[in-house]
Amino acid sequence: MKPFPRAVLAAVLLALIGVSGAHAGDAARDQARLRARVSPALATRLTATVERARADGLPTDPLVARALEGASREASDAEILDAVERQAAALGEARRALGDSARPVELVAGASALMAGVPRDSLVRLRASRGGGSLVVALVVMSDLVARGVPVETASASVIAATRAGAGDEALLRMRERVHERIQRGELPGGATRDGLRELLQRDAKGTAGTSRR
Amino acid sequence: MTEPEDRAWEEAMRAGYRHPAADEAGTRRRLLERLASEPPPRRHSGPLAWWLTPRPLAMRPAVVLTALLAVSLAGVWLGRVSAPHAIRVTRPPAVLPANALGRLVEDGTPVTFVFDAPGAATVSLVGDFNGWDPHATPLRRSASGGRWTAEVSLDRGLHLYGYVIDDHVWAIDPAAPLTPERTFGRRNSVILVGEDGIL
Q1: Measured between alpha carbons, how far is B151 from B137 in angstroms, rounded to an integer?
Q2: What is the separation, in whole angstroms, between the first and last Cα of chain A?
Q3: Do B133 and A14 touch (CB under 8 A)?
Q4: Which of B77, B79, B180 sits opposite A23 (nearest CB)?
């Protein structure tokens, strides 16, 4: 039987302790940021939520930022706690929809879309339409359209259709600008979005849309 | 006992030890049968066998404690510096209006936020990058008076932000994308920075 190499054990031990130490540093930083801005009781409850999210591998910076935003907006403790818990739940749901390989920024954008009422299935289909490519801009555009009054179904279907047609991020951003301009001119948001998508697809058919699939 | 009797007793004892006990053969058989009926000891096989097999290990406690302490300190340091930082430089513009969604900037490259508020006495920038602190990033009034600007270094990622006018009125950036949710009764503006050199 070969003797256990001390170097191997030491490397494993060091790696494990390094990871736990890094997490401890993140946790201490988050807790300090919270305690500086909210009551100790709320900070304790928020820290518990943040640490659960960290244990689940979710990004925690957006949760702390949400709590700080609530403090600056003078929201009540209950409102802040509710907002942070809802966002933590949305981040988890976004990861289930976008997959374990989704990057933190994609989870943040996906969580925002979900909280706006975009169905989870739309995120799944969006992921399928882009493969491993980044979904951040697509999700931001989808969420922005919803924020501008575009019905959720129209917004999600339009962005998914555009990405399936091979529209890259720049094309999606141009579509968003066109839709925004049409809405400002008085068009109904749903119709403006359909027109924006049609314009993008027609340009794509002519080869002038500058679309690209990554 | 007399001396001859002692010698005879000793000899009898030795003889007893020299010869097997009458039931030794049966005892040996029962012992072997019992052992045969016991399940064999579990042995690991495959690529993890080496890792799963118990092995003796000797380390100096002082060395282990020192290593634990050193690595814990290193881990805490890593945790402090592992906040979103490193980014690939993708596209050159060094200064951008905030509403130029998705334009790429080098991590830490200043982004100029521009907001028109002719009648305001003060305007400040709030966002996740400054802890939503209304006092952290005041905007400067331009010479013409109605335009307010601030320059902020942003890390890569998606940032939410807004403006606070005269210390109490919260406003969005009218040209930037919006978050659809109204978490605390209001929407926020969105800016994307350095998204993998794609945009």
Answers
A1: 9
A2: 52
A3: no
A4: B79
pLDDT at A163 over 70: yes
Alpha-carbon distances, residue A175 vs A198, A201, A209, B24, B43 (angstroms)? 10, 10, 10, 95, 63
Q: What is the spatial distance between Cα B195 and Cα A168, in angstroms, rounded to a whole number?
A: 13
How do beta strands B140-141 and B189-193 pair? unpaired
Name the β-bridge partners of B159: B191
Residue B76's pLDDT is what? 59
Could A69 and B74 be called an inter-chain contact, meaning their C-beta atoms sit closer than 8 Å? Answer: no
Q: Which residues contact A9 (CB under 8 A, 6 or more apart)?
A: B57, B59
Which residue does chain A place closest to B136, by CA atoms?
A: A72
CB nearest to A137's CB, from B59, B186, B195? B195
B57 interaction partners in chain A (CB closer than 8 Å):
4, 6, 9
Q: How far is B115 from chain A (nearest CA, A)?
A: 19
- Cβ atoms < 10 Å from Cβ of B20: 10
Chain B residues 1-30 with CB within 8 Å of chain A? none
Reported ipTM: 0.79
DSSP state of B170: E
Q: Model confidence over A82-130: pLDDT tens digits? A: 999 999 999 999 999 999 999 999 999 999 999 989 999 999 999 999 8
Write the pLDDT tens digit of every residue in A19-64: 565 566 788 888 888 998 999 999 999 999 999 999 999 999 999 9
- Chain B CB contacts of A62 under 8 Å are 128
- Residues contacting A194, CB < 8 A, separation 6+: A154, A158
